[in-house]
Every structure is written in structure tokens, then in C-alpha cells.
Known about the structure:
Elements: H1 6-26, H2 46-54, E1 58-62, E2 73-77, H3 85-96, E3 100-104, H4 110-120, E4 124-127, E5 131-135, E6 148-150, E7 154-156, E8 163-168, E9 171-178, E10 184-188, H5 204-214, E11 219-223, H6 235-240, H7 243-262, H8 281-295, H9 299-317, H10 325-335, H11 337-354, H12 360-376
Parallel strand pairs: 1-11, 2-3, 2-11, 3-10
Antiparallel strand pairs: 4-7, 5-6, 5-8, 8-9, 9-10
Helix pairs in contact: 1-7, 8-9, 9-11, 9-12, 10-11, 11-12
Amino acid sequence: MRRTLQPLAVLLVALVVVAALAVAIALPPSDNGDPSSRSAGKLGTLALYTWLGRLGLSVSRLSGTFDLGATDVLVDYDPSVHFSAAELDSVMRLVRGGGDLVLVFDARSIDAALPLLQRIGAQVAGTLPPGTATPAQPFDPADRVHTVPASGGFALLEQTPLVSLLRSGGRTVAGGVRVGGGGRAWLVADSAPLSNDGLRHGDSAFFVLSLLERARGGRIAFDEFHHGEGATSGGAASIFAGPVGGAALLVTGLVVVFLAVNGRRVGRPVAAGDEATVPSAATYIDAMGELFARSRQRGAIAQRYADELRRRVGAATGVDPALADAAFIQAVATNHPERADTLQALLARARALATGRPDEAALLRLARDVDAFERSWAATPQWRP
């Protein structure tokens, strides 16, 4: 049976539609409120992350687990996930061991940042309106930092151990704290200077460079763990839990439905049998003989031999095999008198065996004689009335 290509065409169209939807869904939205270093929105830090990498600095992201073993400078920008006690201890060990922390926060992240500020020894003194921050004291050796935009964040309390770096409206918006005689914590209470949008305004880029120049340097890590990229949402799980995983499930379902509806085999097709092969009369007799032999009704085998003999002779001579034995033999003798006696003897033997319980030897002799007689007709010209 010829298969139509319509189901395959429908499947291909469905796959194209699913692929298009997966691509459309997977495209990252333009989220201006996402503070991640993967975000190209206004609040994100993708520009800073990319720029530092192009400057030749070693830049990476912390996600999956909060492991600071390979970090010298930790950038915690606008954290949205609260720090656990163990994570706060890890940050403090980094700073006390000579590492540096850059903590940036605003109204959105103040709750997550407060426990870390308390560990460092800094306090928030209130809010600040948007404006422009200027250096509180010379801290850039190259004198490149003059104005830095401020979007409206918090003011830091100017008390020991905080050292003011930037002021806006006469109040400190950025400062530094030396922790335990080891490293330093750089605190920026406004998200604008390091954001994608603010980095290109004023002297924000030089301000960031001056902080890194004062830091120990080395390996810089952007904390994405506290932007929600924990162990449950990282790696392959985040891929298959998103649009890609949904598209894969849809494609698998479509393929299964297509195979079920279209009815195709999975694997190599079974070779078709020879439909032209028709069992011969001899094969049929052999099969019936085996059946009757098992049931010990062997007389029926002789009866089948007699019927088969009449059909073969009738086919060769044109005599109707439905005639009675005497009439059949007389009709054959009309044109083949030399064979009539042998035919009569074979039919008589077969009829006699059919009424009794012949053994296998008698049936075998009958079968051999009938077969020899039938073969003798093959060389005889056929006659038709």
C-alpha cells in the first residue's frame, strides 16, 4: 500500500513551529530591573563585566555554589538573595585574609545587604535624592574622578572605620573600610555608577578603576549566586527547566504521535512471503496423511489417493472425474485401452484399503504405484473430447 506524504509534511511544519516558538521564548527579555552581570538592561552590569575582561583582568561569575576559594575581589552588586550565616562568614574570611569586597546596594537590595554591612562595621544614615557625587578626598592618583552620577540611594554614616570617598549633597555615598588589618570593603550606596547605564556617564568608569587599583587585584568574581543562580537553577537543570526543555518535550511528543498515527515500523521491515506459491495436491495429501496417521484413520489416505488419481487421469484424458469408477474406467478405455486395466486395478486397491485399516507399508506401496502411473501420463499426448 502506498503511503501518503501528508503526515510527514504535517510533522515537519509542526517541528518548525515548535522550533520558532522555542527560539522566541528563549530570547532574553529587555529587563531594565535585572542587576545581573548577564543583563544588558539599564540596571545590569554586563557592560562592566565585559569591559574588565577586555582590559585583560581575570573576570568570572559565582553561580551554582557560593565558593570563594578562587576569588581575590568579590563584586556583590545589588544582591537580591539574603546571605546565610555561613556565606557571611565566607565573605569575612576573604576580606580578613587580604581579599577585597565591592558591595553596591540601593533601595531594592538594602535588606539583603544590611547583615553584611553590620559584619563590616558600617551603617546607613538615611536616603539620598538623585544627583552628582564628587570626591570627598583625593583617592585617584591619576586625578581622573571628578563627577559620578547618583540615581538616589543611601547615605553612609561617616564614622570609624568608614573612610569617605564620594559625597553627594554633603553626605557620603561611597566609602572604604579596612577589615581586621587585612583586605578592604568598598561600599557604594548607589547602584548607578557601576550599572550599564551609569558606567558611561561622568567619571564612573575611572571610579571603578580606582577602586580596583586600590584592591589587591587578581581574580575578580561577580556574585550571581545572590541574584538567584543557586545550585537548583544552575547547569543543565536550568536549561531543561526552561524553553529548551519544553521544546524538546514537545518535539518528542510530536514524533511519538506521528509514529503512532502513521503506523510505521521501528526497525527493518519484515520480508514479505511468496504470495504466488500455492500448495500442490501432493503437499495437501501429505499434510492430510500426517493428520490421519496421528488419528489412526489411515483408510481415508487411500481414499484421497483414489480421488487424486481420478483427477490426474481426468485432466490428462478429458474424462469427467466425477463419474463412477466403472463409467470413468470405460470412458478412459475408449481412447487408452492399454491403460484401463492398470487404472482399474489401482482404483480397486485404493477402494479396498479405504474401507479397512491399512498399515503404513500398504499405503506406501499404493502411493508409489499411483505416482508411477500418474507420471506415465506425462509422456502421453492428451486427448480432449
